[in-house]
TrEMBL record:
It comes from the Bacteria. This is H+ antiporter protein. Residues 224-430 form the Major facilitator superfamily (MFS) profile domain. It is found in: Cell membrane. SUPFAM superfamilies: MFS general substrate transporter. CDD domains: MFS_MefA_like. It holds the Pfam family MFS_1. PANTHER family: MACROLIDE-EFFLUX PROTEIN. NCBIfam families: 2A0121. The keyword Transmembrane helix applies. It is a multi-pass membrane protein.
Length: 430
């Protein structure tokens, strides 16, 4: 593949992989740690997940602006260095065995993480051409699936062997490798600073709010983009539910003993499904419209999630999860390849800056509701699966009614602009 000839893409890709892998391993082992030490308080594991999503409330209006106004390479690299430093502090805090302090450090580390991906995603857009976007999205999804398959399993293995401290060390090493990979990239200044050089003294709270508002105005004016961004909000609900429900299902319903092992098998099944779906999606992406790779898999996934609430068999549960993962693969490829085509490079950071807050808000809302409802109000986990299935089904129907028409309208607009570009090369799709 020609995309592998781009050394910058390869380095950025693996940097994102190591960064996310370390975080995932750490997150999973902390959930195991809390469930083991506070088994009568499952809300602790949910609160730990909230520490990864709530920081968005503090930095949501800054992340996209920082990615668009400052050197994207330095922003991504420094995020890794800062998280590595906080991980050292977290390692020391574990010896104090103070849950509030641990939650605080997790909160701060997550806040820094919010700045990483908008900057890294914007860099990738700046070093590839439009024809490579879908291919890059497929490759990103496939390797993400690979790390998901092995990452959580390694996390469970580390927790069982060297405990939570070993997982924190893996976190630290992953952030260091990611930072060094980004540091070694040689990216043109036009991709790092598409809006020109900006100094800190030129940034104020008022200007940051204005830039952030520009992002939402840009999204709202582009109905196709607004529809895709709405989908991210719904996916945030799914992420929040899947962050804790499988562990609760294994610990309190299906496998009271060895729930860590079976929770790892859940991640393995989902990851293998994502890997399979990503492979299929990468092959067929050129043969189908992006919305076709979204509507049908989302509809099938909604039905399968509903069936998760019915099953009392671990084997059947894991088999259904595998198929759900297979459905998610093409969806992620479709969105990952579509977004860069419809977003102007100068605004990619601000658009990305809205996606994460929406997802994290939905994820935090879901986790908060689960912490309140289970097990005091809703004693059965099954009803949580049913509710999630209904929400996903609504999204599938919404996309089926809107995306085909919006896609055709965008294609016509793109053709008109391409014709105008023959006489005026400075015209862009905004």
């Amino acid at each position: 593949m020609k995309i592998f000839h781009n050394k910058n893409f390869v380095k950025l890709f693996y940097a994102a992989l190591f960064s996310q892998m370390g975080t995932t391993i750490g997150n999973m082992t902390f959930a195991f740690y809390l469930l083991d030490h506070f088994s009568n308080q499952p809300s602790y594991a949910t609160i730990a997940e909230l520490m990864y999503s709530l920081p968005t409330i503090l930095v949501f209006f800054l992340v996209g602006v920082v990615a668009d106004k400052f050197d994207r390479k330095k922003v991504a690299e420094n995020c890794d260095w800062v998280r590595a430093g906080l991980t050292i502090v977290l390692f020391g805090a574990l010896f104090l065995n103070s849950i509030p302090i641990i939650f605080l450090i997790l909160f701060l580390r997550s806040a820094v993480t919010k700045f990483f991906f908008p900057a890294e995603n914007s860099l990738v857009q700046g070093i590839l051409n439009k024809e490579q976007y879908a291919q890059a999205a497929g490759l990103n999804q496939m390797l993400f699936s690979i790390f998901m398959v092995f990452g959580v399993g390694i996390g469970a293995f580390i927790y069982k062997t060297v405990g939570i401290h070993g997982a924190v060390i893996v976190d630290f090493i992953s952030f260091i490798i990611s930072a060094l990979l980004i540091k070694s990239c040689k990216i043109p200044i036009s991709a790092r600073l598409p809006n020109g050089q900006v100094k800190w003294k030129d940034i104020s709270f008022k200007s940051s709010v204005t830039d952030f508002k520009d992002g939402i105005v840009y999204i709202i004016k582009n109905r196709l983009l607004a529809s895709l961004v709405f989908g991210f909000f719904i996916f945030g609900i799914v992420n929040g539910a899947f962050a804790v429900l499988p562990m609760f299902t294994m610990k309190y319903e299906l496998t009271l003993d060895n729930y860590e092992w079976y929770a790892s098998l859940f991640a393995l099944s989902l990851g293998l499904g994502l890997l399979t779906g990503s492979g299929i999606g990468t092959v067929i992406a050129a043969k189908f419209k992006p919305y076709q790779l979204m509507v049908f898999p989302i509809f099938i996934a909604s039905l399968l999630i509903f069936f998760l609430g019915f099953t009392n068999s671990v084997t059947l549960f894991l088999a259904i999860v595998f198929i759900i993962g297979t459905c998610l693969g093409p969806i992620n490829i479709a969105i990952g390849g579509w977004m860069p085509k419809i977003v102007h490079p100068k605004l990619m950071g601000r658009v990305s800056g809205w996606i994460d807050p929406l997802m994290m808000f939905a994820q935090s809302l879901t986790l908060g509701l689960i912490a309140i409802l289970f097990p005091k109000v809703i004693a059965s986990i099954d009803y949580l699966y049913y509710g999630m299935a209904v929400i996903i089904l609504i999204v599938a129907l919404f996309y089926a009614l809107t995306l085909p028409k919006l896609s055709r309208a965008f294609d016509l607009k793109e053709k008109k602009i391409k014709r105008k570009q023959q006489t005026n090369p400075n015209i862009h799709i905004i």
